[in-house]
Amino acid sequence: MSVLALGAHRAAYEVRGYFRAGDTLFFTFLFPVFMLALFSTIFQEEGGIAGGPGVPELSAAELYLPAMLAAGLLLSGFQNLAVDIAMERSDGTLKRLGGTPLSPVSYFAGKIAQVLTTGILQAFILIVVAALVFDVALPSDADSWITFTWVFFLGIIASALMGIAVSALPRSGRSATAVVVPIALVLQFVSGVYIFFWQLPDWLQYVASAFPLVWMARGMRAAFLPAEYATLEPGDGWELGWVAMALGIWLLVGLILSRATFRWIRRDA
Amino acid sequence: MDTDAVRVANLRKTYGDTPVVDDVSFTIARGETFALLGPNGAGKSTTVEILEGYRRRSGGSVSVLGADPGTAGLAWKARIGIVLQSAGQGGLYTVREQLRQFAAYYPRPRDVEEVIAAVGLQAQANTRIAKLSGGQQRRVDVALGIIGRPELLFLDEPTTGFDPQARREFWQLIRGLQEEGTTILLTTHYLDEAAQLADRVAVITRGRLRAIGPVAGFGGEQARTPRVTWREGGVLREARTARPWEFTAALAERLGGEPEALEIRRPALEEIYLEMVDEHDGAAAQDAADDDAPQAPATEGAGR
After folding, report:
1. Does B278 reside within a domain?
2. Of B175, B91, B157, whose CA–CA distance to B127 is shortest?
């Protein structure tokens, strides 16, 4: 089989494994849907909420849909792969694969394909639940969906590559979750996922902007929120060119780091 | 074509200043089964992992199927099979799924159903690996090691944790591979396993090769010198002599009758091995010594 055919073969296997692991299924796949449902239910009574000064009121579900889509990118790509690969390294799965003629390229093609499959499915469920259960009016113009599409793909691939790079950090499978989940959690709090980004102090906005989640969340807001909401962003606009550039840079950094750090086993000497 | 599957010359591996493998040399012919014996921490697994390409060597030369494992590529990996010491991954998949997955990595894999039958897991083929017993999981490891139809198979303590019945079945499986011409490098704690399966045996303690040779005649004349034991005055006595019959006849004459608790034995591989380990390894031998380590008997000054 060619390297790519083997990648597809791995992808089918990886997706099957993903949906069999009950805990990751909840914490990476269903978590954003769960959080969307939670926020939408908690704030249901209050009617409309203005996301900030001088912008139209929206329902909680409308405000949180783009945020949860961005969180999904981080969880399905970064958190999922960082924990998954660290576990595979510690339980000997990678060592075993390293003793077979499987190319690392096929292995990663399988992982990325798994991330894409589960990420697309997750975004689809989020959008469908938001529209059908919480009456979120979805954008009707092509531009918004085009924005969503490229933000989604750039974001999830950058996120997956960062996950591969970070998977080299935990010293054991047991510590993988302990290392990775707090990173993901802090990123979500400072990147405008759970708390409106404009409410953060300026310096924290600057710090957070060094990380990719800020840009994924901003891109998703650009796709799903009314144009008036752009005034809440730093620079008073969506600045999609910056979003594309930041995510592009992170994708490259992720690619370089994961290529440089990945080993089938921790090699001695 | 090269007649040796494995050639190791003056292999060294050091961590800092500590040598773990020290000047080890051996060759394994194609089709041969070679057993590496030694107590825990003797350097067996390090040696094997260097041959498998997992570790780098500090010195010496190594050739495995004509290539240096430190630099060999994927085509080389397609020709070897590795059964590592640890077990129990891939628990989310069934036995059949896992074997189908791995079979796809190799250019000419064995038939998945045949391999499942060979390791005796037909009844568990659709069971997730996590739900199998330890011994059954180990058989999955072996199945994954042979699925690619390897020319050279590494077996690192393959039957640890097996019950006697499972070990015998496993030996049958290995004999089948031997008949097909597979070269096998086996490391084991079980001396009877080495005696059953291996053409040649090498003993490694403290990183050094102490002895190497065919199972029959292993350890040389000296080590195989028969051992006569008997009880005299309530004390167990022992003598080693190349002429046990003569010795026993003389003993009977001296004692004026049948010696009490008389035994004449040629040391089996296990005894020879343990003596070797004791000699070179002192306390570390306790790890490997099973329950029947040789007692230190009162020795008669005979049989020199």
Report:
1. yes
2. B91
Based on the fold, state whether residues B205 and B67 are members of the same structural domain: yes
Contact B14, B182 (CB under 8 A): no
Domain range for B265 is 220-299
Any chain A CB within 8 A of the CB of B56? yes
Q: Do residues B92 and B176 share a domain?
A: yes
Domains of chain A: which residue ranges? 3-261
Q: How many angstroms separate the CA of residue A1 from the nearest CA in chain B? A: 7
The pLDDT score that the predictor gives to residue B289 is 37
What residues form DSSP beta bridges with B208?
B205
Helix, strand, coil shares of chain B, percent, nearest 5, are 35, 30, 35
Say whether both B155 and B199 belong to one domain.
yes
List the beta strands (DSSP E) in B133-224: 152-156, 183-188, 200-205, 208-214
* Whether residue B35 sits in one domain with residue B56: yes
Quote the pLDDT of residue B293: 35
Mutate to test the interface with B, among A9, A16, A102, A107 (most CBs of B within 10 A): A102
One domain for residues B133 and B259: no
Separation CA B13–CA B11 (nearest Å): 7
pLDDT of B89 reads 67
Nearest CA in chain B to A3: B105
B145 and B174 in a single domain? The answer is yes
Distance CA B221, CA B242 (A): 9
The pTM assigned to this predicted structure is 0.83
ipTM of the complex, rounded to two decimals: 0.88
Classify residue B11: in a domain, yes or no.
Answer: yes
Element spanning A150, H or E: helix A142-166
Task: Verify whether the Cβ–Cβ distance A93 to B89 is below 8 Å.
Answer: yes
Residue B244 sits in the same domain as residue B202:
no
Q: Classify residue B304: in a domain, yes or no.
A: no
Residues written for chain B: 304
| Mean pLDDT per 10-residue section of chain B, whose length is 304 residues | 87 90 95 91 90 93 94 93 78 94 96 92 94 88 94 90 81 91 91 89 90 79 82 88 89 88 81 74 43 36 36
Low-confidence ranges of chain A (pLDDT < 70): 45-47, 266-269
Of B192, B214, B236, the position where a domain reaches its end is B214
B58 near A CB under 8 A: yes
Q: Identify the pLDDT of residue A262.
A: 85
> What's the sign of the alpha-carbon dihedral A115, B147, B150, B59?
positive
The count of domains in chain B is: 2
Query: Are B223 and B276 spatial neighbours (Cβ–Cβ below 8 Å)?
Result: yes
Q: Is residue B41 part of a domain?
A: yes
pLDDT digits (tens, 9 = 90+) for A197-229: 888 999 999 999 999 999 999 999 999 999 999
Choose among B15, B78, B84: nearest Cβ to A92: B84
Q: What is the DSSP string of B79-111?
A: TEEEE-S-----TTSBHHHHHHHHHTTSSSPPP
Q: Which residues pair with B156 in a beta bridge?
A: B187
Residue A121 identity: L
Write down which residue in B186, B214, B242 finishes a domain.
B214
Q: Is B171 on the interface with A (CB under 8 A)?
A: no
Picking from A156, A135, A101, A207, the residue whose alpha carbon sits closest to that of residue B72 is: A101
The pLDDT of residue B21 is 93
